[in-house]
């Protein structure tokens, strides 16, 4: 029977798993009883994961993607997430333009954003994957020089075409069940954390005896060149499936500083829309001088190279949609884009936070 308001939902197996992790650290998950339960369940269901796979897993420490944007410093996630690089391409390109002079979500502003996003997501599809397996030209892609080449290649007066997109780089031939939290403590120490099951309830399977849901992150690999995943993202050999390889994601946790002091912490779920969501909120705050509430609540749009569509939220201004269509763009409405959790630190040191009304999070301040 469905649960009703006030019912108690107990997850005893999950509680025991968490106790083992609390008592034994990493070994409480990757070894011992939890690992045995994983192996037993996967054998029972003809799965592939073994205790050996779990015990041999190692996390990687990678340097963040770091860029400057109009005097602010932006820190974000490196590969195997595409978030930091694609965000850097978008913001570096926007910095070449006086984007703040255009009214928010005007046709002129959206046209510029979309053409920049088209290039950034094309690079994502063709060049990005696990940097332990492929050589990604990160320093080039996040450079101001490359952003300038993107801007010089764009005709902002005509709708571009993803199929015919001109190559700049010399090529050689993410429901969005993600969670984000942003935290700042009284000492100014900040955490921006994004983690995911990928699809709605992941693989819709729980490892018996553990209470742990199995994700469906395999969908973030490219099963074959040009074949879209559940978010419509296409990929290339760079993100092909290989043993021990990490799949390409779109997670984009961000920390922003000004004059070496914390300014903003934010991130979002949203699959392929995460990156453009985060970029728009950053631009809203910095370019349009908006407070964190207004920056997050403003209507959003998204373009990801393929399919060649501008996604707009359902309450987007009808006149702007008509004008974009007249200019040659194809528009598709969706209920919402992203679900941002953000904090801004004022010059006085006061923290202001907001949890996106598109989701069910909350902003809490504790003394």
Q: What characteristic shape results from the CA principal axes?
A: globular
The overall pLDDT average reads: 91
Strand content: 15-25%
Q: Could you tell me the number of beta strands? A: 13
Can you describe this structure?
By secondary structure, this protein is of the alpha+beta class. The two termini are 41 Å apart. It has a 6-stranded antiparallel sheet with strand order 1-2-7-8-12-13. Strands 9-10-11 form a 3-stranded mixed sheet. It is built from 11 helices and 13 strands. Helix 5 runs antiparallel to helix 6 (107-127), helix 5 (83-95) packs across helix 8 (144-152) and helix 5 runs parallel beside helix 9. Mean pLDDT is 91; it is low at 171-175. The relative contact order is 0.13. Helix content is 30%, strand content 17%. Helix 11 links the parallel strand 10 and strand 11 (331-334). It is globular, with a radius of gyration of 21 Å.
